[in-house]
Amino acid sequence: MKYLRKSLIFIIIFILLLNLSAFAETNDTTVKKGEDFRGLWVATVVNIDYPTKATTDSQILKSEALQVLEYAKNTGFNAVFLQVRPSGDALYRSKYYPWSKYLTGKQGVAPSGGFDPLDFWISEAHKRGLELHAWINPYRVTKRSSGEPTHDFASLHSSNPAKKNPSWTVKHSDGNIYLNPGLPETRQMIVNGVLEIIENYSVDGIHFDDYFYPDKSFNDNETYKKYNPAKKSLDDWRRDNVNTLIKDVSAAIKSTGKSNIRFGISPFGIWANKSSNPKGSDTKGLESYSSHYADSLYWIKNGLIDYIVPQIYWNIGYSIADYKKLAAWWENAVSGTNVDLYIGHAAYKAENPDPKSPWYGTAEIERQLYLNDSSKIIKGSIFFNYNVMAKSAALTNTVKAIFDGRDGKSPKVNVSISRPTSDITTSMESFYLNGTSDPSQPLYLNGKLVENRSSKGYFGVLVPLSVGKNTFTLSQANSSDTCTITRKASSGSEKMSAVEIPSSSTFPQSQEFWMPGEKIKLSCQAPAGSKVSVTLNGKNYSMKQISGPTNPSGLYKATYSVEYTMPSFSGAPRNIDLGAPIYTVNYKGTVKTKKAPANIGVIMKGSPYYAEALYDVVDTYNAPVSGNGAAYELYKGMVDSVTGMTGSYARLSSGQWVFKDKVKIYSQKTPVNTVVRKATYEVGKDNDVFELTMTSSAAAIVSFDGQNVVLNVSAPSSAAMPKLPGDALISTIKDSTSIYKSEYVLTKKDGATIEGYYVEKTDSGIKLVLKHKPKVQSLTKPLTGITIMLDAGHGGSDPGAIGPLGTAYSEKDINLNLAFKLKRELESQGANILMTRTDNSTISLAERLTLSRNARPDMFISLHANSMPDNVDISKIRGFSVFYREVFSKPSAQLVYDSVISAHGKNKHGVNKKNFYVTRNTWAPSFLIESDFVPNPVEFEWLTNDKEQDKLAKTISTAIVSYYMQ
Length: 966
Ligand SMILES: [Zn+2]
Prior knowledge:
It is built from 19 helices and 49 strands. The protein is α/β, with parallel strands linked by helices. It folds into 6 domains: 372 residues, Alpha-Beta Barrel (TIM Barrel), CATH 3.20.20.80; 72 residues, Immunoglobulin-like, CATH 2.60.40; 101 residues, Immunoglobulin-like; 59 residues, Roll (SH3 type barrels), CATH 2.30.30; 96 residues, Immunoglobulin-like, CATH 2.60.40; 179 residues, Zn-dependent exopeptidases (Aminopeptidase, 3-Layer(aba) Sandwich), CATH 3.40.630.40. The strands form 12 sheets. It has an 8-stranded parallel β-barrel, surrounded by 5 helices. A 6-stranded mixed β-sheet has the order 45-44-46-49-47-48. The protein has a 5-stranded mixed β-sheet with strand order 12-18-17-14-15, with no helix packed on it. Helix 17 crosses helix 19. The chain starts with 5 loop residues before the first helix and ends with a helix. The site of zinc ion has 6 residues, from loops.
């Protein structure tokens, strides 16, 4: 499409100024009439767009009109189509038609204060440089909504021409009333209505949509007989009726001498299919020529209209009605005539949530506009409809970016690939590319159009990788960027150079201890297809091959394994050494043996074997792996029995595992029998405290399931339980003892809230602290006295998730921005805010947790933005999620989540339980926010939009206030 550069527009304005007197009547539209036409349909029927609700209040009618016009201007439109006759009525003062019920609620009722909507729309549109076209539905008299009576003459005002002349109407099978197109009287009525508008209002055009005959079953037999002197077929006669109307309207408009007023029609997108008419398009859909009796080609060829806007409401490539084929067909239809071609776009179909739909996101609209740009004949677009456009920031931004590009307003952005950050080698089969581009120009990846870019030109594309070098070039008119991703072939089985058992493959590599009856796996590597066995504690066991090729030709590495049950022993509890396993391989007669470098031992129950925490905080794990996060923590000096040992881990009597190097392990002849001397319970201002006085320092771990706080102490004795104060958070304490430990179950009172819990080591034992929920003391500043710690995730050398701008603007920056905004919001509510980082410094997860442990805030919020692995199409993943670990953290996490989902319309990724390092704080409600996906272009744009983040901070803050107000 041809469009005018800004400089050219200035020249035109200059010329207009020179000829001021001659052009005094024209409005200040900045685009030459008909060029780069950008229209917006504003439907009034059933209040689709305007007014949102029928009202006589002219103030509301005015402000809603201004809202539409401001939107149109700000988005870059230059014309608005206001539906002024939705159904035999008017949105202006008319002597032929009653006031519309969609305007005021009842047909014939005028808006308050003599307000004339059309007059207001025109003057306000012109002030903003927008053309205002009066959109008329010529034949429709009623538009029945479900539940309303059929053929509802009663709803029509006495001044309605259909009510005055029922003989002009046809009661159609769809339940509606139509003016009969075959009657000369109705045509004259429609012409009068058009002339009235032109004479009384400075509209820029008269516009009809695709509603002509509703369908073939129209009941007009009598009229057909009476008004068909030439004995035409019914179809031709009906087309003639419509053509006559168009001819009459066209002539009437010309007769006024107002040459600036343009007349146009937006028919259904298919005139006729090739199969039924050789002049038709290569399509298979409904035909307006035979269904609506709308012969657009006749109007074009006879110059009856100034422009045509086929409603091509289908996607490019759609098998029944392909946008591209139809656009080409209409180009051909207008070529050689003076009729301008604009395309009617189905904006309402965009942003389909299904990633497989061509209408997913805004890409289809983008593709269609680029296709129009490549045409010399298509001169503009009209979008249906205002409401869906204005509601969708993504669609608005997409369309605006393209308009801005045509106006030369877009900043020049060079194509740049941000992900991968450099050329890489991977074993993945696909890779997600991210980067930025000039949004006003199409972007190509190895020659193929890149879709679903954000309005700022951010892109994200999943590309398949072939084995070897893959080169990806992203290009636009004036810039390009290339990256190379090498995909490694998947490694087959590893070869061995000789028959052997590698020492490093034998189990164990360091001292193992297990209790009698426990099962462990003895394993080693040897050539596949060998006979392998192991000897331990004087017995030999044959082993099974569990990996590697089963029928190898040559020496390939394989793993062998056998389950071994720890033997039982009698006598005094002690540790027994079983020695090191000796592995033997026999590969086709070649025999080799290898002794494992470390021993296996048995720990008898009650054996005096201990671990003492060496550091201020020692994490414990549910299994001898740390990858899933820690479960509890012990404090320096705490002692517990050791009941197992494997790899780098030691197991304590509680069943928890600790890193061996975080504890001192020792044995002595007699067991350490810690005695609990005294138990007390006190209710304080902020906490309840259950305290145990003990003879030596025992390990203690505590958990809370929402009902019971369970404290386990590695002291096999208890004391008399204290009497509970009346205002205690708990109703009972039950204690019990066993060989290694004592257990205390504190049951929460019904209705009480425990907002946190933790064990503290004291000089004489331990304290179990149960946190109260802070009470709101001030309604104006409800968070007064409440301390909240904000944790901006990542930072410094850790960029967090990488998106379209790479490390120049990554997750760590997004998190810190939001943290500051949230700080400001929460402080305005009276909160005391602590932050784990306030600048771009590198802070470990342990440091963050330590800051929280030392400060003991009332709430801890970790701020993050999400990502996905490199082989996932993140452009199709959107959403907001919150994570928590402790049950009592869920209510606040849920409230924040629900508030953000409803206030920001985010995709739901749920409130999830997960043991993240920074959600482990048991001393206060703690949760982690994952706000949107950084590598998703549209979400990245949202995450980096200052105003949106202001709003997000406000939403989170409001949710937290309401949490404390509950
Ligand atoms: Zn993160």
